[in-house]
Amino acid sequence: MKTEILDGDEGVEKAAALLGAGALVALPTETVYGLAGDALDPAAAAQIFEVKERPAFDPLIVHLPSLEWLDRLTTAANDPLVLELIRRFWPGPLTLVLPRRPIVPDLVTSGLPSVAVRMSAHPLFRAVLSRLGSPVAAPSANRFGRISPTAASHVLEELGGRIPLILDGGPCAIGVESTVIAPCKGGLRLLRAGPVTAEELAEVAPLLAAGPAIEAPGQLASHYAPGTPVRLLANAAEADAWTGPGTAGLLAWSRAERPPQYSAMEVLTPGNDPREAASRLFAALRRLDAMRLDLIVAEPPPCAGLGIAILDRLQKAAAPR
Ligand code: TXA
Ligand code: MG
Fold first, then answer.
1. Which residues of 107-117 are buried (b: 16+ CB within 10 A; e: fewer)?
2. Do 254 and 284 reside in the same domain of the chain?
3. Do the Cβ atoms of 61 and 117 come closer than 8 Å?
4. Could you tell me if 119 and 61 lie in one domain?
5. Shortest CA distance to 162 belongs to which of 276, 26, 259, 7?
6. Which domain holds residue 78?
7. Spatial CB neighbours of 72, under 8 Å, sequence gap ≥ 6
8. Is the CB of 97 under 6 A from ligand 1?
9. Ligand 1: distance of its center to the CA of 160 in Å?
């Protein structure tokens, strides 16, 4: 299959037409690129798992074209806590895990009684959904276990030849995947750290510890993994102390000069801004990974706000495979 890359109105029209015909397309969101298919069509969902090589126990996020769909897909559309979260954070990088209605195919939820829903703020994504008029299931547009794509070229590397179209919206503004939470009686369970921070969520309701693994079935320890082994350091001084064997690249937070023992260095944020770091993280990891080094050494981000989401992705990249 030839994979076309289009942008603008032409891309939006073609993406909506392909989705309406049961095909898959890659779409830009504000977080990362998604691999989208008709959320109400089990055959499209099956294709998503196949194209991504994703195990069927890892459920998909459903992206809504409009708020009316919340009540069609879930039984929580009148819950005051849910309404408050939506008022504050939608459209945007927050995914809500809510009790589902039977209309959602079992394949999409991996048989769980809940469905993950989100509403993207990306103008091209919204344009496609409003043309289509129905929700799409869209996990990140990478092969299972690999780094999420934050540019159309990354999607081509991951899924080229497997899908007919990539809608090019340029680099993703945020760069790490949405925050995933499950609202429940006593507060919010944080299932995946992300751009909507724990501090922001705690203003709405108390944060509860995440429950058993079944609640966050996709949150395997090893994820977002480059081919090159990654070592996450406890602090920046450890990066200066590193000595071989082998060749290493440094994924630095904000330092100015490359320590001589590294053959390459990517700096996430010269200005020490976690938002800038998040937007550069996955592309920087991909560039270091492409250099075929023996090791990627990563400095830790500050442990607050968006830094928590970045730390989470680096921990997963560094986890034993
Ligand atoms: O920013 C994002 O969320 C991107 C863009 C494309 O929207 N999507 C994304 O999807 O990161 P994905 O499939 O790579 O990650 C979604 C995670 C899954 O790994 C799973 O753990 C969780 O959301 N999830 C989905 N449905 C769930 C459910 N019913 N219960 C608990 N967790 C669920
Ligand atoms: Mg993913």
1. bbbbebebbbb
2. yes
3. yes
4. yes
5. 26
6. 4-208
7. 101, 103
8. yes
9. 22
Token code pair at residue 283? 């592309």
- Cβ of residue 228 lying under 6 Å from some atom of ligand 1: no
Query: Among residues 13, 160, 144, which one has the least CA distance to residue 152?
Result: 160
216 Cβ closer than 6 Å to some ligand 1 atom? yes
Q: Does 29 contact ligand 1 (Cβ within 6 A)? A: yes
Q: CA angle, corner 135, sides to 81 and 17, nearest 5?
A: 160
Task: Quote the pLDDT of residue 320.
Answer: 83
Q: Which single residue is written with the structure tokens 């990249």?
A: 317
pLDDT of residue 201: 97
- Average pLDDT in the 275-298 region? 97
Cα 44 to chain centroid, rounded: 20
Q: Tell me the H-state helices in the chain.
A: 8-20, 42-52, 68-73, 80-89, 106-109, 123-132, 152-159, 198-202, 236-241, 274-289, 306-318
Work out the pLDDT band at 215, boundaries 50, 70, 90: low
Indicate the pTM of the whole model.
Answer: 0.94
Q: Is residue 221 part of a domain?
A: no
What pLDDT, on the 0 to 100 scale, is given for residue 214?
Answer: 47
> Do 171 and 92 lie in a common domain?
yes
Query: Residues 6 or more apart from 290 whose CB is under 8 A from it?
Result: none
- Binning pLDDT at 50, 70 and 90, where does residue 216 land? low
**Residue 269 forms part of a structural domain:** yes
User: Which atom of ligand 1 is the closest one to the Cα of 33?
Assistant: 6
Nearest-atom number in ligand 1 for the CA of 109 is: 29
Per-chain mean pLDDT for the chain: 94
Which of 132, 158, 133 is closest to 34 using CA atoms? 158
Residue 247, both tokens? 């060749």
